[in-house]
Amino acid sequence: MFTFRRCGLLVFMSMLSVTLFGQAAATEPENMFTANGKLGVVIAVLVTILAGLFLYLISLDKKISRLEKK
Amino acid sequence: MQKNWWKVLCIILLVYTCTYGFLVPVPDPPGVPLKQTIRNLFFHVPMWIGMMVFFTVSVVNSIQYLRFLNPKYDIRATEFARTGVVFGLLGLFTGMIWAHFQWGKAWSGDVKQNGAAIAVLMYFAYFVLKGSLQDEEKQARIGAVFNVFAFFMLFPTIWILPRLSESLHPGGMGSEGNPGLNPKDTTNAMRSVMYPAFIGWTLLGVWISTLRIRIRLLSA
Hints:
The complex is a heterodimer.
Chain A: H1 2-27, H2 35-69
Chain B: H1 5-23, H2 44-68, H3 71-102, H4 111-132, H5 136-164, H6 188-219
């Protein structure tokens, strides 16, 4: 469980850098987040939500697996 | 872990859908007002695909229950029906958002909208019926019989009637396609996202359903 939380933290931290990319985009007009009318920002948000949902599902799955072993 | 490969597949397919689904080039033929909203094909349509899969799994388990009277099958049928209802409601709501911008009104009483709403309401009745019975065996047995009935109501409401009448949605009388989509509006590039999206969203629902089933089996 502890290692799992660490993994979650790792994913979260790596997601933080995504927002940094967004900040940099304000000065630099052309990168993958600002192309297509800043559509990349929406994709980053959506992927973050997906990551959160999946982490939640995986943790539920693990909890239930542990209950089943008892 | 060997048994969990499909959960990994689900994650990969959905991440692919939610990224490439926005980047894939979509056609913008003159006279078709869909424009970028056609990307809803990767999000709105899979809800209905998922719902149909879950209701089918549910009715198969209900029939198994009636054959073997094992409560395990009743739990499976109930939980898959529940996920099916959730996906159906999400399909209705996402459809309403899309319709608001495409057809001008969130609910225009279109035969497709009405049929889908009736189909979902039938499954509401399933849960009301089950919830109103105290005895667990009766609940399972009557629920299973009603589930078979509800499943066969899906045929007229979402597969037959929408094909017989004119509709704003693709696939009505006099328009191209099946009740889900118009194949002429989709390109091969879009199909390369559409099918993974169908599988990915459906697997997500299966995952959620199995979690609920496992909890119910534990507490039983």
